[in-house]
Specification:
The chain is of the alpha/beta class and about 130 residues long. The chain has a single domain (about 15-130), classed as Alpha-D-Glucose-1,6-Bisphosphate, subunit A, domain 3 (Alpha-D-Glucose-1,6-Bisphosphate, Chain A, domain 3, 3-Layer(aba) Sandwich), CATH 3.40.120. It contains 4 helices and 6 strands; from the N terminus they run βαβαβαβββα. Strands 1, 2, 3, 4, 5 and 6 form a 6-stranded mixed β-sheet that branches. The N and C termini lie close together (about 10 Å).
């Protein structure tokens, strides 16, 4: 499976749910994020869009299978609540399943490092650059 390079944006990753953003692509994206985070506590949240909870579960399962990480699912929340949770926990990072202001057919992931500092979708794309996945 190849992941479309157009889903990688300056501030997040987003695309059409079920086509560009699906459980398979999210698993690959999560593995790339684990390389960026390196280790530690990871916070996962999701918005109310169709499929967001399923994608968040994929993120959690993938992180849990990666040595050196501890994942906390905070569930359905707003993005500011997610940022707060990452900061409050002193986490190494977090992943929020959301497509923000985009139409309902979209889904995506906001990724943050320590202190909820944004991780660019371009950084994740770079992590995958030497693979045959994009």
């Amino acid at each position: 499976m190849k992941i479309s390079t157009r889903i990688f944006k300056a501030y997040d990753i987003r695309g059409i749910y079920g086509e560009e953003i699906n459980p398979e692509s999210v698993e690959v994206i999560t593995k790339a994020c684990a390389c960026i985070f390196k280790s530690g506590a990871i916070i996962v949240g999701y918005d109310g869009r169709r499929g967001s909870n399923l994608l968040a579960e994929v993120i959690c399962k993938t992180i849990e299978q990666t040595e050196g990480f501890e994942v906390t699912m905070i569930g359905l929340c707003t993005t500011p609540m997610f940022y707060f949770a990452v900061n409050k926990a002193g986490a190494s990072g977090g992943m929020m399943v959301t497509a923000s202001h985009n139409p309902k057919e979209y889904s995506g992931i906001k990724i943050v490092g320590p202190e909820a500092y944004p991780v660019s979708g371009y950084d994740v794309k770079k992590q995958l650059a030497d693979t045959e996945l994009i």
